[in-house]
Amino acid sequence: MAEFLFEPILCDPTPARPRLRGGWRSMADIIPYPSNYTPPAASSMARRVNVFAQRVAFLPGTMGQQRTAIMGIVNVTPDSFSDGGRHETTEGAIAWGLRLAEAGADLLDIGGESTRPGAAPVDPQDEIRRVVPVIRELANRGLLLSIDTRHANVMAAALEAGAHIINDITALEGDPAAVRVAVQSGAPVIVMHMRGADPRTMQDDPSYGDVVAEVYRYLGNRIAALEAAGISKARLCVDPGIGFGKTPAHNLALLRHLQLLHGLGCTVLLGASRKRFISAVSADEAPQDRLGGSLAAAITAFSAGVQIVRVHDVAETAQARAVWFATHA
């Protein structure tokens, strides 16, 4: 398969839309092209990226198109980095999911395996036992749900129980059967960048020549591979993988250049809530004390036209979203 090149999807800025500080930037201004690639004509490259125009129908209706959608996190685990054990029972996870929906979550991400740095893997059957009853009940309540898993059997069981979206930290590479499940189900898929193949080792000295370019290239290659397998681009969402095989400096670089991901032509998701980089640039706060930094990251996502933010603190993020979009109407 040919390597994905940095062929940007460009369009003229729309005067009626707000402009990012500093105006629109050319993709070529920020991401260098491979040495063997001849870029388009100068007149084409002179156009600017309009991040507000790069929106596709990944979510139902206009969700995520008029304003950023909020994905609430429901960890049915005893060991997640931020809230491990707080909602690990079926009843507790269902109650938490309903609370997040009432607080303003547009969709919920249900996970039964912690993928924090160093986390041990969970047997897929144990994962299924954790998530399926929660998904079934929340789906019966009419909520939009994604299943956060890297295991094909869990994906299939969760979709059968009523989940609508697959969210895979391995971009459907971690399980040989995952692509088949995604293709046959017709479900939308969130594909994420992670350096390395396992959360246990992903933070073992991650290094990049240019983290922004390498994440962009990887996601572009996965889009091309999944399209070839039969998953249309409209069914794909990309996630740069904040905290997954990246140092604080890498995470900050990706946040500064979030708008570039629209050049891939897919919905974009940011999951930066309570991540370690926040305390690394602040005062070494515990995960539960990183609300301010999480909101700052969410606002960065709003400004970059990101369609989905994945967060723990739904009510606070919803309030920040309401104010940001009201002031940028």
Describe this structure in words.
The protein has about 325 residues and is of the alpha/beta class. The chain has eleven helices and eight strands. The chain has an eight-stranded parallel barrel with strand order 1-2-3-4-5-6-7-8, surrounded by six helices. Mean pLDDT is about 85; it is low at about 1-55.
Give the topology, please.
Blueprint: H1 27-30, H2 42-45, E1 69-75, H3 90-103, E2 107-111, H4 124-140, E3 145-148, H5 152-161, E4 165-168, H6 178-185, E5 189-192, H7 211-229, E6 236-239, H8 248-256, E7 267-270, H9 276-280, H10 291-303, E8 308-311, H11 314-327
Helix pairs in contact: 3-4, 4-5, 5-6, 10-11
- Please, how many helices? 11
> Which of globular, elongated, flat, extended, rod-shaped describes the shape?
globular
Order of helices and strands: HHEHEHEHEHEHEHEHHEH
Span of the ends, CA to CA:
43 Å
Q: Which stretches of 5+ consecutive residues score pLDDT under 50?
A: 1-55
